[in-house]
Specification:
15 strands, 13 helices, 40% helix, globular, ten-stranded mixed beta sheet, three-stranded antiparallel beta sheet, alpha/beta
Length: 377
């Protein structure tokens, strides 16, 4: 059996309302997805997280080195892609290109073998996963705190047990927004905050200390991902768990993050950090350090399905009779690409999402939507 072809698609859609966070704004959703076809006629789908055009170029660079290989040999193929890019791309978009192909290969392998990906990863350790709603971005017009609280209340009414809000504008605004949002959702819904590395260490300490009383489940990317020692120092100055890692690549990057004792929770993005093959290794590495794993997930239903299968296979360290709940990021911002490209039985119901047992990643891709959103060459 051989890989017959690899095709890339850049999908784009203009948003009805621009939203922004601490770094920049989104007026469009744009993503690169990849289709891998075997000579048996089976098809697997993947996607890369990052600048879509650059990821597409990376996939096209890797394609001649991968076509003709056996799609069941995911680790062997991963090694070929890694070696072909190591000299000039140990981090960044070429790793995201590897990730996209790798995710597609796992989907393809599952379909060929008629097994769900979680089975191929080693087995499903949990049937359901708790999604946390990612939203509460910033928009223009009106009173910011009021808009954030209105959105948060919608998630509560839908049955979400946890949610994550954006911070990173100013300390004063952040503290007020967190306070009002906690008052709105009540004490029983978990609340996380994410500054997208907006603050320096002094500011991050100030913010963490000011909002500790609002029972924050984690403070995500409080400072630049370059400052490992500052992350480690921040952990000693707050009781809020510190999370990060969406800007890390490969197990080698996560080894640095873990060795420096920078975080309580690592957040690899499967579609950027090396695909499912590398995410499995990163998950194992996390158990060595006793650190939790909650993947960063942002994109279409392809990325979401990959994260669900990955999380369902994660080890719980330490083990116990009543295992703690595992969480998955559930982006709720406007994204027609996410809503229309795939369908799946992995749907939100009563605060949980059940992991699919269908072959591959368990979704059906809507090719009409694919061509509707695909940019023309």
């Amino acid at each position: 059996m051989k890989i017959k072809s690899i095709e890339c698609f850049i999908l784009a859609d203009k948003l009805k309302e621009t939203f922004y966070f601490s770094q920049w704004e989104y007026s469009e959703r744009r993503i690169c997805v990849v289709k891998v076809t075997s000579d048996s006629g089976h098809v697997g789908w993947g996607e890369g997280y990052g600048p879509a055009g650059l990821i597409k170029a990376g996939i096209e660079f890797l394609t001649p080195h991968v076509v003709g290989m056996n799609p069941l040999q995911t680790e062997t193929i991963w090694s070929v892609m890694y070696r072909r890019t190591l000299d000039f791309a140990r981090r960044g978009v070429l790793v995201a290109a590897i990730s996209a192909i790798d995710v597609a290969l796992w989907d393809l392998k599952g379909k060929i073998l008629e097994q769900p990906v979680h089975q191929l990863l080693g087995g499903k350790k949990r049937d359901t996963i708790v999604p946390y709603a990612t939203g509460m971005y910033f928009t223009e017009g009106g009173v910011m705190a009021d808009k954030l609280c209105k959105e948060a209340l919608e998630y509560v009414n839908l049955g979400y047990k946890a949610m994550k809000m954006k911070v990173g504008l100013t300390l004063e605004e952040d503290i007020e927004n967190v306070k009002k949002l906690r008052e709105t959702i009540g004490p029983d819904v978990k609340l996380m905050i994410d500054s997208n590395h907006a603050y320096n260490l002094r500011e991050a300490v100030q913010l963490a200390n000011a909002v500790e009383k609002y029972d924050i489940s984690w403070f995500e990317e409080p400072i630049s991902p370059e400052y490992y020692d500052q992350y480690a120092e921040l952990r000693t100055k707050t009781t809020i768990p510190i999370s990060g890692g969406e800007c890390e690549y490969l197990r080698f990057g996560f080894q640095t993050l873990l060795q420096s004792k920078s975080v309580d929770i690592i957040q690899p993005d499967i579609c950027a950090t090396g695909g499912l093959t590398e995410a499995k290794r990163i998950g194992t590495l996390a158990t060595v350090y006793g650190v939790e794993v909650v993947p960063h997930t942002w994109g279409t239903g392809i990325a979401f399905a990959a994260a669900l299968h990955f999380i369902s296979n994660l080890d719980c360290m330490p083990g116990r009779l009543r295992s703690p709940e595992c969480y998955i990021e559930h982006d709720r911002t406007e994204n027609p690409l996410r809503e229309q490209l795939t369908t799946s039985d992995m749907v939100f119901d009563k605060g949980l999402i059940k992991v699919s047992d269908k072959p591959g990643l368990g979704f059906t891709l809507n090719e009409d939507a694919l061509y509707k959103f695909a940019l023309k060459e």
